[in-house]
């Protein structure tokens, strides 16, 4: 087939994926015990590579979950006794809020329409909210919250916990973990791996909160923070982990580190720039996100006069896949993923074909 | 390497695993959208194959989780308002009990020492317990609860829910789902796949209970039964699933169906018989589980006079891996997995080498 996927996740697999998978299979790593030194070394390798890539200090653990959605639940269980607060401007930030209600917490929200973004100065955090839930990159609408605004929001509210959903942007956002309490992402987006693994970065301060509330409120049973943290000290997980996913993630993170995360970020911005410029100048296309500062660098959402299904079909014939809009935008929007797995050349090819429509 | 793994999980990969993985990669299935018809067909294929293999009626959904441990939590959330009851005779049945406490339920237990098993006639279920948690195969001790006893226990207590942990035995136990409310397993045991996926079989009756309690008690947020069930009706999952794991599981289940589940069960019993006979007649070895009816067919635990570490080392030099005992049994016991991935010939080779010690 040799299709190029510009879909926002599951997305294109990173070019080195197949080689790493081959090594995994040849070394029979799918059969090793998750309580062996061989596993602990593999686990530590991945954590170390991610720590370097994302500049995560030792105050924060890097933990593995079944998916990033699971992180929503675990963060709420660990840091919220009673009240959380959510910035909502799309389907995924809304789900974080829904999770809080489903756990019988009181969830406050500050909601904006799809396509709009948040500045720290506009946000009033309710007095008793224990957690501020932010979304760096809203995969449904292509809105990003600038990292500087996330940092400012925490600085304005130093006693609250702040969580950053970077599911579809990590390793692009350069978060300062001396400020950020917890963040999480999936591997099937910008890391170019098959789905089935979530990564949760979480501070000692969150751990202390979880310890302090557990006698009054349940902090969950499966992958509860205390047990995850304790196992992580020994480079293990409480349950049998997705060893294949953890291995592959470590190898991709190593590849990213070889290239240098700043180079990856620069190339991401370069390709995003090519796409936005093309969309702005091409009749029939316009960026869904009007405010430039809020435009995602990793998921570009395009308003299209031609029905999106027709464009997707035409582009498919050229050997490329792009996503439709999310929810209400399904028929009239395109979502184009801009992850490290797709090269400048492939991006230029996509632009070339879109230009011929 | 070409090592044969007789370890109880992660275990030997099924011989067809590599071919299925190759097909998955070649068809770029790691990049397909989990909201596409292509994914829904893949999902349905796996569910249909499992339904045939395990004889699961349409009254029960077959759902996918990040691991089997997650099923413990989801079953407790869905079926227990206040009180659960647990048959404990090893580390994994104990963990199911611990999960109930961690969710602030009142967990009753009937505990027996490691190596002993349960008969329905001995079990008195507390009056207000809503769920009876049983373990078909206690991976830590090599004790099985005969399927007939599990069925009897439910028949004695028809108003209670009964859950069956078959993590390290499915597809061996022939459960009757007109009686059993819910059961679950992992793919890294008898299905011979890499870890990272749990399978949860659950009845409409559990769904109704979850619906009835959700206004008073949280039934969880991530992978809660109502949302999982609703998505499953459409052959989807709430969050991005482990598409690779689900695909591979479907193909292995299809392979098992081609062989016939009764043939797989017969071969399992044949190989278990070879192992137990050898252990019983060989000086220095004895089965840890004294009562024959309670001896696991899939995880054989052996008391050894020679330190287990020495035996594991010698066997490793012969190209085979066997497990040590669990917890307190680590130094003096061996655990030998007997899953479909290891052939009669490989089992005979292991017995031959153990006989030379």
Task: Describe the model.
Chains A, B: One of its GO terms (molecular function) is L-serine-pyruvate transaminase activity. Chains A, B: It comes from Dyadobacter fermentans (strain ATCC 700827 / DSM 18053 / CIP 107007 / KCTC 52180 / NS114). Chain A has 357 residues and is an alpha/beta fold. The first copy, chain A, folds into two domains: 104 residues, Aspartate Aminotransferase, domain 1 (Alpha-Beta Complex); 242 residues, 3-Layer(aba) Sandwich (Aspartate Aminotransferase, domain 2), CATH 3.40.640. In chain A, 39% of the residues lie in helices and 18% in strands. The first copy, chain A, has a seven-stranded mixed sheet with strand order 2-10-9-8-5-3-4, sandwiched between helices. In chain A, helix 2 runs parallel beside helix 8. The two termini of chain A are 23 Å apart. Chains A and B meet through helix 1, helix 3, helix 4 and helix 8 of A and helix 1, helix 3, helix 4 and helix 8 of B.
């Amino acid at each position: 087939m040799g299709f190029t996927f510009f879909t926002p996740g599951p997305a294109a697999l990173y070019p080195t994926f197949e080689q790493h998978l081959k090594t995994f299979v040849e070394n029979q790593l799918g059969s090793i015990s998750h309580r062996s030194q061989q596993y602990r070394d593999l686990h530590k390798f991945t954590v170390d590579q991610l720590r370097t890539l994302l500049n995560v200090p030792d105050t924060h653990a890097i933990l593995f979950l079944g998916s990033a959605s699971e992180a929503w639940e675990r963060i709420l269980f660990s840091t919220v006794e009673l009240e959380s607060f959510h910035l909502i401007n799309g389907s995924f930030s809304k789900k974080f809020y829904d999770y809080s209600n489903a756990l019988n917490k009181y969830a406050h929200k500050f909601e904006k329409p799809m396509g709009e973004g948040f500045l720290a100065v506009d946000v009033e955090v309710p007095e008793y909210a224990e957690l501020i839930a932010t979304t760096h990159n809203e995969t449904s609408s292509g809105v990003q919250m600038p990292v500087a605004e996330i940092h400012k929001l925490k600085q304005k509210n130093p006693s609250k916990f702040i969580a950053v959903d970077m599911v579809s942007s990590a390793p692009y956002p350069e978060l300062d973990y001396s400020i950020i309490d917890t963040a999480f992402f999936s591997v099937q987006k910008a890391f170019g791996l098959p789905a089935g693994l979530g990564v949760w970065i979480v501070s000692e301060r969150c751990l202390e909160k979880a310890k302090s509330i557990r006698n009054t409120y349940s902090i969950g049973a499966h992958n509860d923070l205390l047990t995850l943290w304790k196992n992580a000290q020994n480079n293990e997980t409480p349950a049998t982990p997705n060893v294949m996913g953890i291995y592959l993630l470590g190898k991709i993170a190593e590849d990213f580190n070889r290239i240098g995360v700043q180079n990856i970020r620069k190339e991401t911005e370069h390709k995003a720039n090519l796409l936005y410029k093309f969309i702005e100048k091409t009749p029939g296309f316009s960026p869904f996100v009007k405010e430039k500062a809020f435009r995602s660098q990793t998921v570009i959402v395009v308003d299209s006069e031609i029905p999106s299904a027709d464009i997707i079909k035409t582009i498919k014939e050229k050997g490329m896949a792009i996503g439709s809009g999310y929810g209400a935008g399904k028929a009239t929007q395109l979502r184009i993923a801009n992850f490290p797995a797709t090269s400048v050349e492939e991006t230029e090819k996509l632009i070339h074909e879109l230009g011929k429509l």
